[in-house]
Amino acid sequence: MDMSEDGTTTGVTRYMETLLRGLSACPDIEVCWIRLVHSRSKLIHRLERVGTHLEYMIPLPLSMEPVLNESYWNNKYNSVVFYIIKHLFASKSNVILHTHTLNLIDLALYIRSKVDCKIITHLHCIPWKGLYNRNPEHFNRLYKLAYVHPSSETDLELVLTDWEHRSYTLADRLICVTQCGADFVRKGVAGALPPTDIIPNGMDDFYEKRTVSRKKDKLIRLVYVGALSPGKGLPFILEALRGVKQRGYDNIQLQIAGSGHPRFVDSLASQYCDLDVRFLGLLPFDKLKEVYQNSDIGVIASLQEQASYVALEMSMFGLAVITTAVDGLDEMFTDGVTALKVGVTFSAEDGLKVDVKMLEDKLIELIEDKKKRHRLGYNARQMYLEKLTLEQMTERTVSIYRQLI
């Protein structure tokens, strides 16, 4: 089960689509993806078969606040959803509710009260860190509690809501995609937790060796992939590129694949019109593959990230990667071996920022050293093959399913 906004693709959506491809190789596992979708046009629930699995689209209320925060309406909505989907559980045994959005825990608990089943909470992102985009002041206060003045008391303040707490404590199993995610839950919850597993995200291998040589030009192609939002750090990349250009390197092109609020995108395009930047928009994966295959360096400047599919893709395609040393990105990559890492800075006045001067230096380091680019890209691809394939992720996940039943 997951919750999403109609027409958007998130890391959780990517994970779900990827896991379903992996589970299609397990004929003894019946899968139904229950999708709770916020949409102004899709107002009727719909069940359909997609390949080897079922997909059940359930509309969310147009006004979500009362449903999430008022127990009466929450329970009413959950009872309606269960009435719609209860036929899925008829004559079924060994049922597992694998929840991928924390605020669906109350629906999962409601179903468990009616059906013999187990609940898995899958932690894809840490809720308080998402405040960077929505409420910077609140984010800065919590960041200070977490990293500047940490203590066992302040750790408890980082779990923001009752439903987040229930997601961690009332599930039968907890899956985290990173060690830092598991550590966050362990420190932030007083009392007993369910057994916890760490399963990094994996993905299919789409790598194809380039068969046609690129024109022998001196252009260094950088690629940024992801949402165009403040928390993904794109303005810091652009600022670093301006510094690189001012230091005499004018053979750099940045391709940006992703979407964002038009005002934010227009502001960046206007502010950095002196740079060679291509805004490609949101690309289908076949087109994105071509961008990866024709790029030299992948740049990630996220200020918080658990298990980035962009980082996975860049590694799988054998790109030299420059990344911020935060959260799951710091766990995934080894500095100087599989990527070059860039630090972040924090102050009460400016909040959390990427170290732009350090990013600038790392960019120049790779621009000047083609052999290092190739070595980092090769090592990153080997890391993907050894640890982050779809088969490995699926095997670990199915192992937990079998333990629960």
TrEMBL record:
<protein>
    <submittedName>
        <fullName>Alpha-maltose-1-phosphate synthase</fullName>
        <ecNumber>2.4.1.342</ecNumber>
    </submittedName>
</protein>
<dbReference type="Pfam" id="PF00534">
    <property type="entry name" value="Glycos_transf_1"/>
</dbReference>
<keyword id="KW-0328">Glycosyltransferase</keyword>
<dbReference type="Pfam" id="PF13439">
    <property type="entry name" value="Glyco_transf_4"/>
</dbReference>
<dbReference type="GO" id="GO:0016757">
    <property type="term" value="F:glycosyltransferase activity"/>
</dbReference>
<dbReference type="InterPro" id="IPR001296">
    <property type="entry name" value="Glyco_trans_1"/>
</dbReference>
<keyword id="KW-0808">Transferase</keyword>
<dbReference type="InterPro" id="IPR028098">
    <property type="entry name" value="Glyco_trans_4-like_N"/>
</dbReference>
<feature type="domain" description="Glycosyltransferase subfamily 4-like N-terminal">
    <location>
        <begin position="11"/>
        <end position="204"/>
    </location>
</feature>
<feature type="domain" description="Glycosyl transferase family 1">
    <location>
        <begin position="208"/>
        <end position="383"/>
    </location>
</feature>
